């Protein structure tokens, strides 16, 4: 789970790099200001989503599965709140969706690993 805290910023950096290369290749203005805002929002959302997994370390699979559900909900709700509250320009929305997709994959992988590595709940 601690690796996911480091992996999320790397995913955002790679997505930004791919987006900038694509924008340059298509001769389109990449809208750097919106990219930075969307990257910051999704960095905060993806790091905040890791909080339930960190708080439930050492718990059984039942607890970790619920923590994983809460983590993905936090990730989704943070992105939705940012899309509604901040500048709703098209470039911001496009960058936000790109970063959301990338960080959703990394958050989901972290959740799956956390559930799989947790001990199986025993009947008491």
Walk me through the structure.
- This protein has helices at residues 2-25, 32-49, 51-55, 61-85, 90-117.
- Helix content is 81%, strand content 0%.
- It is built from 5 helices and no strands.
- The mean pLDDT is 91.
- The chain has one domain (2-117).
- The protein is an all-alpha fold and 124 residues long.
Q: Return the domain count.
A: 1
**Overall radius of gyration:** 16 Å
| Class of secondary structure makeup | mainly alpha
Shape: elongated
Order of helices and strands: HHHHH
Keywords:
124 residues, mainly alpha, 5 helices, elongated
Offer a concise description of the structure.
The chain is an all-alpha fold.
Topology overview:
Layout: H1 2-25, H2 32-49, H3 51-55, H4 61-85, H5 90-117
Helix pairs in contact: 1-2, 1-5, 2-4, 2-5, 4-5
